[in-house]
Design goal:
Elements lengths: L1 E5 L2 E3 L6 E2 L4 E2 L6 E3 L1 H17 L2 E7 L5 H10 L3 E5 L9 H15 L4 E5 L10 H9 L2 E12 L2 E7 L4 E7 L2 E5 L11 H9 L4 E2 L40 H14 L4
Helix pairs in contact: 2-5, 3-4
Keywords: Oxidoreductase
EC number: 1.3.1.108
Pfam families: ETF (PF01012)
Length: about 260
């Protein structure tokens, strides 16, 4: 079974800052991590390989430093890794990103299953996976909490708000996974050393059969108008009194002062 896992290096959301002029995330000086949802996608891919054989290839589109995220995946047990990186890919929205990923996957070769985390923690759109499936002309199965493959058929347990849904499809398919699907393994020392010795090939625009008008900022119909952090909530205040009437009076005074009533 040939398994492709799409991963993304994202800024650590505990230390995110927004540029008020460009309305973009300031990545310089901010530590980057492997997108948490993608860790579960990698684990799902490794488990499928262990059960059915084959190989796991991880791919990522991003700047040169995104190799760190790919090396982490190799240390976990992925067989191969490919970085898609070119300045012309910068500023891509989900449509341009999924188009570029699809072009790279076509170049890599045959696949049975493509796995993605359900969303990235920097954009939170959950759009790249389904859009990638559309570009490749395959079935998208989203929010997977369990995956079973028998022959040429895959059975997926989809997580809904108040229930689970069982869906079935023929391979090849694209599956996006939720965190409840598994507990990602930790890399071993041997795995880390092996990953550090591996060379990660880089695909640029020239390496792909790609329409230059559909990539990067120029190929992105979605433009971000504004990104901002939510206002911090004021800590609540507890009114304590042994006298119920006195407590009620204090509460009313507080509400009046805050112009709530």
């Amino acid at each position: 079974m040939d398994i492709v896992v799409c991963v993304k290096q994202v800024p650590d959301t505990t230390d995110v800052k927004i540029d008020p002029v460009t309305n973009s995330i300031i990545r310089q000086g901010v530590p980057s991590v492997l997108n948490p949802f993608d860790k579960h996608a990698v684990e799902a891919g490794l488990q499928l390989k262990e059960k059915h054989g084959g190989k796991v290839t991880v791919i990522s589109m991003g700047p040169p430093q995104a190799k760190d995220a790919l090396k982490e995946c190799l240390a976990l047990g992925a067989d191969e890794a490919v970085l898609i990186s070119d300045r012309s890919f910068g500023g891509a929205d989900t449509l341009a990103t999924s188009y570029t990923l699809a072009s790279a996957i076509k170049k890599i070769g045959n696949f049975d299953v493509i796995l993605c985390g359900k969303q990235s923690i920097d954009g939170d759109t959950a759009q790249v996976g389904p859009e990638l499936a559309e570009h490749l002309g395959i079935v998208p199965l989203t929010y997977a909490a369990d995956i079973e493959v028998e022959g040429n058929t895959v059975l997926v347990k989809r997580e809904q708000e108040d229930c689970y849904e069982m869906v079935e499809a023929k391979l090849p398919v694209l599956i996006t996974v939720v965190k409840s699907i598994n507990d990602p393994r930790h890399a071993s020392i041997k795995g880390i050393m092996k990953a550090n010795r591996k060379t990660i090939p880089v695909l640029s625009q020239q390496d792909l059969d790609i329409d230059s008008q559909r990539i990067g900022l120029n190929g992105s119909p979605t433009q971000v108008r504004r990104i901002f952090a939510p206002n911090q909530r004021v800590q609540g205040e507890i009114i304590q009194s042994d006298n119920a009437k006195e407590a009620a009076h204090l509460l009313v005074q507080k509400l009046l002062e805050a112009k709530i009533i």
